Amino acid sequence: MSSSSSDEADEVFDELVDEVVDNFIDTVIDGQTNKPKRRAYIERDRELGHIRLCNDYFSNNPTYTQDMFRRRFRMNKPLFLRIVDRLSTEVPYFQQRRDATGRNGLSPLQKYTAAIRMLAYGQSGDTYDEYLRMADSTSRLCLAKFTDAIIQLFGDEYLRTPTAEDLQRLLDIGEVRGFPGMIGSIDCMHWEWKNCPTAWKGQFTRGSGKPTIVLEAVASQDLWIWHAFFGLPGTLNDINVLDRSPVFDDILHGRAPKVKFKVNNHTYRMAYYLTDGIYPPWATFIQSIPLPQGRKAHKFAEMQESARKDVERAFGVLQSRFAIVRNPALQWDKKRIGKVMIACVILHNMIVEDERDGYAPIDTSEFETGQSSRSSQVRSRDSVNVTPDMLAMRREVRDSDKHHRLKADLVENIWQMFGDEDE
Length: 423
Known about the structure:
Structural class: alpha/beta
Number of helices: 16
Helix content: 40-55%
Radius of gyration: 30 Å
Shape: globular
Order of helices and strands: HHHHHHHHEHEEHHEEEEHHHEHH
Mean pLDDT: 87
Strand content: 5-15%
Strand order of the largest sheet: 3-2-1-6-7
Low-confidence stretches: none
Largest sheet: 5 strands, mixed
């Protein structure tokens, strides 16, 4: 009896095993023969998205005002339309095309709006699907194509080194503020990288914080960013970044315009930046006085720290305009993150140029009308093909003796110009 029941159990077990094996073989065969399933198609009615966008902002009688447009798109409408015109004319991706059925694709306005909203608000592309009728993957592609186009079309003009005319204007502004020879402030900003690869986190994380990528920038009083060097890991401090930065390349290679200015009846031939205390005592850097002793030193420290905030203000405005660089970076590709940062800097400079008349600019008309003679002179180099002595130029840039003499002269100059304000 026991032998019979054992045989029946073995037969049932064998049948179960055969059934499992047959099902597995059928599954493998079906997987090899069947075609992959197509993604579900969603009819988003993209034409409706274009019509709604035009009615809200671009019709003769738009729903929303100019101020609301400026707040939501971070720029005035004429500048927005100028960028759209360049993109739709010179970049094939932003040109509206018909598909195989003769139906119009997404309009340039929809693509550009998706990209600028992602930069301005720092949100995912899926956020604007219901309004623009655009899938998340399409929005992310728009952002990638948009940053490439901005760098290609506007990078040479809006992220350039200062020309001779630019330098003269910057030097005039610096002289009115009490710093003859000053052409801006330099500092670094960290951008958190949320999706930093695990293998790189030790390289990009300082201490027990989060991984970051560094932006080194030079900004002037009107918030224009003249130099942007991005991509170094967050473990580096400002000095390490400076050692790798191309900020002095034009000077070392003899391409920069020649500068000459006077402070306290002493002549200098190299412009300088205002910095915080971490930067070294070079002829091209002027820091504050950490523990000022005496009224002159106190006044100089007050004026230097006030003027040096230009670059901090530029960082703050950049982050408030484009929340994508204020929020942690969500992309994996470091090169793509860098393009987003550079595109935001270029757009920032375009907005500064467009809205500069609305600022409270420093009046330098006395130099233009001849009422007062400027102490600085700028002229273009006669030839940039002459090979300079790079070692000699490097020593001049890093000359600490010139730094201390210039700083002492600036202390006297600040006191002569503004010392009576405290009395």
